[in-house]
Description:
Layout: H1 2-6, E1 16-17, H2 28-40, H3 50-70, E2 78-81, H4 84-98, E3 105-109, H5 114-125, E4 129-133, H6 143-149, E5 154-158, H7 172-181, E6 186-189, H8 201-204, E7 208-212, E8 223-227, H9 253-288, E9 294-296, E10 307-312, H10 317-326, E11 329-330, H11 346-350, H12 355-358, E12 361-365, H13 375-392
Parallel strand pairs: 1-11, 3-4, 3-5, 5-6, 6-7
Antiparallel strand pairs: 2-8, 7-8, 9-10, 10-12
Amino acid sequence: xxxxxxGFRDAKVxxxxxxxxSSKPIHPRVLEFAKGYLKHGYGNPSSLYSVGLEAKRILEDxxxxxxxxxxxxxxxxxxxxxxxxxxxxxxxxxxALRNVSKGRxxxxxxxxxxxxxxxxxxxxxxxxxLNLIPVDSMGVVDLAKLDEVLTKNTxxxxxxxxxxxxxxxxxxxxxxxxxxxxxxxxxVDATAAAGYIPIDVKADGIDLLTLSSNDLYGPQGxxxxxxxxxxxxxxxxxxxxxxxxxxxxxxxxxxxxxxxEAARMAKDEMAQEARRxxxxxxxxxxxxxTIEGAYLTGDPTQRLPHHASFRFEHIEGESILxxxxxxxxxxxxxxxxxxxxxxPSHVLLAIGLKHEEAHGSMVLTLGRSxxxxxxxxxxxxxxxxxxxxxxxxxxxxxxxx
Length: 401
Ligand code: PMP
């Protein structure tokens, strides 16, 4: 049994965390920077006395660091939220509802995160038309189709910078040209891409961009929306009018200060860290695709530097995840989407996989705690896991049945 072979729940077996796309541990330097604000950052940034002004200074400092990460025009272009989900909701509902006089159409790729697709579906229930733009077998948005479906009534088009399940990086500049040629707004969910590849909202032609704190090694509890100067949104949270009236509610100073510092660290260290992760990612892919019935999912070259995703014939993603955990290696699977249904991932179906193919998926996302020495251990665990599960699978000719 794997428990005995690899010491399941044995503290001596080193944990290898490979699910950085779901969440990342707060970086010690970020924690060191921000922890003081848990104790002393009680001031309300909207208050005019000194404690409040100090809180406001912390907030503005974080705003500057985020604007610098993405080359935003200035700090006023950053709106803090509590999560990337909230930023996506604000971008989509905020733009669509503010611009109903211009039209009642919204558009998104079929592989967007559910925090983009669900607010769009909600708008659809309320009379909006939702145009879904297909992707090819690598997960790249179909530019001709994009051009075809956008009309003057499309108030917001949302395409992610890179996909969290298959790692594919989208041709954002070409997408933005198509959207802007029609005089429309482009929202980009950069949750999976930020901190790994350079993002320049001005050069890329992005109107609204979502960022997540914990995806940058910042604390959980903060997200941000970049809003290009001049773009008007309807707020979705109403109250005291914080964040230029776009997101009422006292800001989470600890999380926001940490997010700012995480953004600064990402900007300074991104090139070097991406190079290091890419070397490890390439080695993982090279080894894992040698397994019979194993295939890379997503684009082989236009992909995030830390992202290696696969599908395996005749086995289930959940079983892979649980078996890998017995080796104290944490991976994720795209086979059950986060709505906790047993439906296969909408992303894998969108790239043209059949239901049974989409069920056997495994996603490995590397991060700062990983190193090249771990690669043989990971590869060995994957090979043993696949072999063990195939022996149990009635679908495989290696099965015992
Ligand atoms: N967008 C993408 C691409 C994601 O991967 C995620 C999840 N990490 C989100 C949005 C939502 O992030 P959160 O659950 O932190 O709000």
